[in-house]
């Protein structure tokens, strides 16, 4: 039986992906399938940390626009991620997975405060750790939070599960000539302004030399395929 290629991963799941075709709210069939694969990864001996977006409920400045003060709009987005974290944690527990939720904004009655050493200890004991509330600071995306947590917990790789199956030279929904990359460097992502992650998240992953693999969550089994070494989606890494 093949061995996992990574010992510890940081899985970033977009909020929109959890909403399924509805694009808003929670699709528990989708969440259930994702959690089945997370359980499979954990049982294979992989230590799993998860950062979840909140776009299925609220997208900070995008939804707040000029109608709200930016900091408050971003705080609302952080609370949206906490809702998604609790939904994932509950589903994992239903499937017999030991899980802990840690949040960057303290809400002790429903989650642990984020403590790096405690998160690592949980993962070493085989628990899945779900990180909520982004970085706890406005003006930073949950993609940046994913890279930050990955760096803090010494993750081998960041798995970016989104609604697109890889990195393209242009928006494939708008440009039929867009080319999908199997591999691309951080520098090229930044230079071409490609929509992998925001520039802050990309720069942070580059500075910390953490490879990022972007793939579609439409088939949750892609998560397992990636950790087992299959070439899925696009890998963003240093130039060799």
TrEMBL record:
Binding site for UMP: 54, 74, 135-142
E.C. code: 2.7.4.22
List of residues binding ATP: 12-15, 55, 59, 163, 168, 171
Keyword set includes DNA repair: no
Pathway: Pyrimidine metabolism; CTP biosynthesis via de novo pathway; UDP from UMP (UMPK route): step 1/1
ATP-binding found in the keyword field: yes
Residues annotated as domain Aspartate/glutamate/uridylate kinase: 7-218
Activity regulation, free text: Inhibited by UTP.
Keywords annotated in UniProt: ATP-binding, Cytoplasm, Kinase, Nucleotide-binding, Pyrimidine biosynthesis, Transferase
Domain of life, per lineage: Bacteria
Main location: cytoplasm
Location(s) in or outside the cell: Cytoplasm
Record-linked InterPro entries: AceGlu_kinase-like_sf, Asp/Glu/Uridylate_kinase, Uridylate_kinase, Uridylate_kinase_bac
Catalytic activity entry: UMP + ATP = UDP + ADP
GO CC annotations on file: cytoplasm
GO biological process: one example: 'de novo' CTP biosynthetic process
Assembly, per entry: Homohexamer.
The protein's role, per its UniProt record: Catalyzes the reversible phosphorylation of UMP to UDP.
Family designation: Belongs to the UMP kinase family.
Protein name: Uridylate kinase
Organism: Intestinimonas butyriciproducens
Lineage summary: Bacteria, Bacillati, Bacillota, Clostridia, Eubacteriales
